[in-house]
Amino acid sequence: MLRLIGKRLLLLIPTLFGLSVLLFLWVRSLPGGPATALLGDKATPEAVARVNAAYGFDKPLVEQYFQYMGRILSGDFGSSLLTNRPVLEEFAARFPATLELSAFAIVFAVALGIPLGYWAARHVGRWQDQLAVLLSLMGVVVPVFFLAFILKWVFAVQLGWLPPDGRQNPRIDATHYTNFFVWDGLITGEFDAAFDAFTHLVLPGIALGTIPLAIIARITRASVLEVQNADYVRTAKAKGLAPNLIRNRFVMRNAMLPVITTLGLQLGLLISGAVLTETVFAFNGIGSFLWDAIFNLDFPVLQGFIIFIALIYSLINLVVDVSYGLIDPRVRVS
Amino acid sequence: MSMNLPPTPGGGPSAEMTPGAAPVGAPVEADGAPVAAGQTQSTSEPGMDTKGTSVWKDAFQRLKRNPAAIAGAIIVVLFFLVAILAPVLAPYPGESVPGAREITPGNIPGPGEIGAYPLGLDRFGGDVLSKLIWGAQASLTIGIVSTAMGLAGGMLLGLLAGTFGGWVDGVVMRIVDILLSVPNLLLAVSIAAVLGQGQYAVMIAIGVSQVPIFARLLRSSMLTQKGSDYVLAAQTLGLSRSTITMSHVLPNSVGPVIVQATLTLATAVIDAAALSFLGLGGGRPETAEWGRMLTYAQAELGIAPWLAFLPGICIAVTALGFTLLGESLREALDPKSRRR
Predict the structure, then answer these.
(1) Looking at the 3D structure of chain B, how many domains does it have?
(2) How would DSSP label each residue in B43-76?
(3) Is residue A189 pLDDT above 80, yes or no?
(4) B201 and chain A: CB distance < 8 Å anywhere?
(5) Which of A13, A84, A163, A261 is the most buried (most CB within 10 A)?
(6) What phi and psi, each to the nearest 5 degrees, are found at residue A86?
(7) What is the mean predicted confidence (pLDDT) over A23-43?
């Protein structure tokens, strides 16, 4: 098990190294070069020359790359051009918001997706199955930002049940320790603040969770269909084991393997969805911050965020592979 | 309706699984061999009383009987027709604002309110029906061009990795890993940042972000085929490696890739809308593009919700068409369902 983890961590190195080279070249290929990107289009040639000298943009590329890597490895990702605060700080301030939203989305997706897929598989070919397949198909083809619109229009604009945007009602005087608003409200005993933050999570969370929900439902369905006819399930039935036991220990445990892989992949993809969802709901996480960064070509932020996200994505995949070994002993042996 | 592999919204690499994962719900590429085996056996065994049909012919027969495939095909054909015939069908040019005078800050005429604009006007005074029709053309162009790029790039990489193996495979797969480690949309956005905002940037961005999935699919499919008996037979006959690769392994490996390309068209339409929704499509605000229409519908959600619903429905229906077609194609090519 440790060897597997070690091997996977080693494989991360060339990937991240390649990514850093790409990002380095990416910044150098921005229109007008990095100095213009820093100063904006209207920069005078003198100002550009000054910045080039200050940041070392006039040195040979290889030398620049080593400087850049040195800075990154020491944790210096530069400062945002928009807010002038260090990228790392900006990321740390906003990441909890996106994490909170993603957690809601993934819990929503798993809590509904697995039972839906199981239900469909148990009624294969009948209307329940058709309905579940149709629902999951809808979840895949409806763009996440359009779904966000519909949810916002129905539940916030028309019915007024839930807040249309933001993370918390600004009129609530809430204490924030960790920037996980729901959690903060719970530990400080400000339950109204926690509840308010939670209501702000519901609509964007559902919008973000729908695609993973659809995919998890489909995988679960296909996987349960495959497993429930396996020889060992038949044997278990023949032995007269209780249906619940067969479901939990034999069918679900084996059927969950592909679901976990999918879940890992979906966690990584949530970031893309978060950019769109947070934009629609004016939810102040890394997604909406990235959006601003894209528009203003805030390249230190883009660069830093891409590295963070790639790292998180790779680590999630690592955890998925390792959890595989925990669930399926066959993987450990081979 | 049985499904063996999930589609890949956002172009996610769901076909690529960790080593232990492949067997359950194994998609076509994992057991692609039976497709080829069925094909070669049926033509080579003289004692068989049924005449062998080609995999594709067989798949087509099955598609014709599948209602989901027919529904998908109808949507796709309609979409193509509308996109191609846009100059004939659309009452107004894409960026024109014929109804600019009818718009007041608090009121936007909706569907049916003014006879000349059957689906109403948008905030600029553009005819919504015309913009939807021109939008179909924009989506089709972006979808096809970007998927063609992704397909070409991915197949080239996959072919290199699958044919040569060894260090070539290692290098190619590391490149693919790097591309995969950045979420799709972010990759597209980074590319668009370098190329500037515009249609071409969107096409290239989506195309590049599709490369990994095609590369991995073709590679894994080729690796499975390479172990087949017919390859061994071809080697025994002394055929050159390039002949074996190009005329034996490749044709038998492209099935899953073609299925994926159909499904990817759906993702490309959605991604294109997402990128122009985010404002990376460039051009003027009144450009007729579905994603762009949604961007500007945001502010009017309270008074003119149809401005968001109509383009959104267009995106979803188009994506549905390609998805249904791709899923049915996968099912039709799946050796497991062939036997039934």
Answers:
(1) 1
(2) HH-TT-SSPP--HHHHHHHHHHT-HHHHHHHHHH
(3) no
(4) no
(5) A261
(6) -55, 140
(7) 70
The sign of the CA dihedral B51, B334, B31, A331 is negative
pLDDT in tens, B300-327: 777 778 888 888 889 999 999 998 888 8
CA separation for the pair B230, B222 (Å, rounded): 13
pLDDT at B336: 59
CATH number, domain of B178, equals: 1.10.3720.10
Residues 6 or more apart whose CB falls under 8 angstroms from that of A93 comprise A179
- Any CB–CB contact under 8 A between B67 and chain A? no
- Euclidean distance between CA atoms A7 and A97, whole angstroms: 32
Q: Say if B52 falls within a structural domain.
A: no
Asked whether residue B85 is assigned to any structural domain, the reply reads yes
CATH of A96-288, one of 3.40.50.2000, 1.10.3720.10, 1.10.760.10, 3.30.2350.10: 1.10.3720.10
CA atoms of A328 and B66, how far apart (whole Å): 37
Q: Which one, of B273, B312, B267, B185, lies nearest residue A291 by Cα?
A: B185
For helices B33-44 and B250-277, give the axis angle rounded to 10 degrees: 140
Q: Measured between CB atoms, which of A222, A273, A305 is closest to B4?
A: A222
Residue B13 with chain A: CB contacts under 8 Å: 265
B315 near A CB under 8 A? yes
Residue B207 belongs to domain spanning: 57-338
Residue A309 tokens read as 């996200």
Q: Chain A contact for B266, CB < 8 A?
A: yes
ipTM: 0.75
Spatial contact of A233 and A219, defined as CB atoms under 8 Å apart: no
Q: Is B24 on the interface with A (CB under 8 A)?
A: yes
Phi, psi dihedral angles at A171 (to 5 degrees):
-75, -15
Q: Give pLDDT tens digits for B123-172.
A: 777 788 888 888 888 888 888 999 999 999 988 988 888 888 788 888 88
- The domain segmentation of chain A, as residue ranges, is 96-288
**Residue B289, in any domain of the structure:** yes
Q: How far apart are CA B220 and CA B176, in angstroms?
A: 13
Using the Cβ of B198 and the Cβ atoms of chain A, whether some distance falls under 8 Å is answered with: no
Q: Which of A41, A135, A140 to mutate to test the interface with B (most CBs of B within 10 A)?
A: A140
Are A146 and B312 in contact (CB < 8 Å)? yes
Rounded Cα–Cα distance for residues A203 and A135 (Å): 18
Which amino acid is located at B56 in the chain?
W
* Residue B193 counted as domain residue: yes
pTM over 0.95: no
Chain A neighbours among B 79-98 (CB < 8 Å)? Answer: none
Disruptive mutation site among B3, B17, B24 for chain A (greatest number of A CBs within 10 Å): B24
- Comparing alpha-carbon positions, the chain B residue that sits nearest to A297 is B193
Residue with tokens 């329940």: A128
